[in-house]
Amino acid sequence: MTMNVSGNQTASVVILDNKDLTSPIHELQSFSSICKALRWKYIRVRVPICWKKLLLSRYMLANIVYLIYSIGILIINFHPNFNERSTNKSLLPSNNLNQLIEHNSDINRYYIFLGILHLISAFLYWWAWHDRSSLDIIMIPEYLNHIEAGLYLWSAFWYSKQDTLGGYYTLFVHKIELFAAIIELIASFGWIMSWYMTYTRTIGRGFTFDDPDTMAYITTTISSFIYIIYNVQINLYPEEYGTNILYKYGDILYFIGALYYIAAALRDENCFWFLPLAGQYGVAAGRIRVETKDLPQYGKTPIFITDLCKRRLHREFNNTNELHMDNSQTIPSN
After folding, report:
1. Pick from 141, 256, 147, 272: nearest CA to 205
2. How does residue 68 score in pLDDT terms, banded at 50, 70 and 90?
3. What is the DSSP string of 256-325?
4. Which of 49, 153, 287, 322 is 20 to 30 A from 124 via CA?
């Protein structure tokens, strides 16, 4: 069904063959320039539709919470009010593990709040997969994300208990955060796997910098490596705690990744209809036909976590049957 407006002009937003043509992968309208794409007749039709879709998007909600969390981390790292110290002695490296650690109760509370926000973000990302089974293999990174967020929240509750650079609680917090960083790195590669198995194969998406998802998982994976390196250094040299600022670079990349995830969510709801498709104006994604393959392709076939066990049992069953068949065909010697 196609909706027509005055004359022979076809409406910018249509529904044809039960396909949502407000989706960027089914877009039929092409524009020759950004000026023509931003004409009022297109804006007044498309903006309300995009806004409504964003309000109903679970993925956008998760990304917004993730962005707020990353902004909060940067504020604690770089805002002068959170970096004031009563003395500059704590900013100097020390080889004395008995040196006292200065505490700011406000910052400790903020870290606990951000830890809770991180846990909420992890739940929202899990909730965003509403069309997937909770046993789907792509859900594994989301479960790891919950564990990682829980560990960081645990360490945040223990910040106030740290007394000296070599104290029990201080060293144990370092170990908790190292373990959390390792889980985060594993989850980062898991998210790449999830993206590969689910992203829509079409023009402008995939292993290309045109796809903001690609930039997002690159930045978050690099930040995970930075957190690993930082936590290894702090566990080996606890006297550098408070002076080693390597983690701040990871936090910056974390924030950049959050921005790219927001851009990806906006792209998915066709909020960038005025931008060129894969760098080309005058091209509509819904009218592209590629001879060598059918596009779009909606990811890969789902694999459930329980399927791995079933395959193992099936393989063991086949091996047992083959063994029984070999034994039955053996002729006993006289």
Report:
1. 272
2. very high
3. HHHHHHHHHHHHHTTTTTTS-BTTBSS--GGG---SSS-S-EE-----BHHHHHHHHHHHHHHHHHHHHH
4. 49
**Rounded Cα distance, 187 and 152, in Å:** 15
In the chain, which ranges are E strands?
15-16, 19-20, 200-201, 297-298
- Which of 148, 77, 156, 157 is CA-nearest to residue 119? 148
CA gap 242, 116 in Å, rounded? 23
Residues whose CB is less than 8 angstroms from the CB of residue 140 and which lie 6 or more positions away in sequence, other chains included: 190, 305
Torsions phi, psi for 333 (to 5 deg) = -80, 150
Strand intervals (E) in 154-223: 200-201
Strands 297-298, 19-20: pairing kind: unpaired
Angle, vertex CA 329, rays to CA 323 and CA 331, nearest 5: 125
SS3 assignment, position 57: coil
pTM of the model: 0.79
Q: What b-and-e string marks burial along 232-241, b requiring 16 or more CB atoms within 10 Å of the CB?
A: ebbeeebbbb
CA pair distance 222, 258, nearest whole angstrom = 13
Place of tokens 């091209």: 283
Structure confidence at residue 333 as a pLDDT band (50, 70, 90): very low
Strands 200-201 and 19-20: unpaired
Cβ atoms of 57 and 125 closer than 8 Å: no
Task: Return the pLDDT at 21.
Answer: 63
Q: Rounded distance, CA 212 to CA 127, Å?
A: 21
The answer to whether 226 and 260 have CB atoms below 8 angstroms apart is no
Output the CA–CA distances (angstroms, integers) from residue 15 to 3, 142, 328, in the order listed.
8, 34, 64
Per-residue pLDDT, 122: 96
Task: Tell me the average pLDDT of the chain.
Answer: 83
> Which amino acid, 181?
A
Pick from 94, 111, 114, 95: which is nearest to 103 by CA?
Answer: 111
Q: Dump pLDDT digits (tens) for 285-323.
A: 878 776 666 777 778 888 887 776 766 666 665 666 655
